[in-house]
Each structure stands twice: as structure tokens, then as C-alpha cells.
Amino acid sequence: MTANRKPNSTIFPELDITKVWADMMMPELDVDAILTAQQKNINALNLANKMVVDSWQGFAKKQAELWQATLEDTSEFAQAVASANEPTDKVVKQAAFAKAALKNSLSTAREAQKIAAKTTNQTVDIVSKRWAEGIDEVVFCVERAAMKTA
Predict the structure, then answer these.
(1) Greatest C-alpha distance within the chain
(2) Which pLDDT does position 104 carry in this prediction?
(3) Predicted confidence band at 133 (pLDDT cuts at 50, 70, 90)?
């Protein structure tokens, strides 16, 4: 084995890389099409990211409004309980407040779930549409390259 090696060629003896590349049939690359496709990919990701950010900013704003309303309701509740004379009245007011707080919490959770589902669906739609377009672009480029070589 060592007899077939060229000087300074210890890993690939007798390998002429120019012959390997000369025999390889490489299609022409349409660099403009590749750049255009990548720009479309970036635009689709930017749109999806913007949609997610806008959606969650709206949700955060809604949460801030809900917290403000909760603070106001809690203040009113504390005043109502403090002004009640009878212990049974206090218990009734506490129960009513707990029921309203639970109802508001469940409503908020449902709203958050709807926002998350809507945002996820819209984002998946954008990305999957771009994937389908990208596959069509690859097929078109391959077909065009095949027509040039035929």
C-alpha cells in the first residue's frame, strides 16, 4: 500500500481530485432563484413572528386591564365585607366574590386558549403555505435545469 502513495499523500493515495470533479455532472444553479426563495422564506418567518408578537401584546394588554379590574373589584369587596354587620352577610358576600372571581378566571383562561390557538393556526398556515411554495419552486428549478441539459 505504501508503494502507491504519492509524497505528502497519506490519507488518499493516488486520488486525483480534478478527475473526480471533471466526471461529475452538476446542474447549473440559478442563484437569483435561490436568493428570491430565501427572501420569501425570511418574509414568511417575519410575518409569522409579527403575528405572534402582535397577538401576545394584545393579550398582555387585556391581562393588564383584567388585573386593574380585579384590583378594583377586590377593593369594593373588602369595603362591602367590612360594612356588613352580620356574619352571615359577610359569608354571603365572600361567597359571591369567590364565585365571580372564579368565573372571571375561567373566562380569562378560555380567552388565553382561544388567542393561543388562533395565533398558532395562523402561524402554521403562513409557514406551511411557504413550504408548499418552496417545494413548487424547487420542482420548477429542477425542471428548468433538465430542459437546459436536454
Answers:
(1) 108
(2) 86
(3) very high
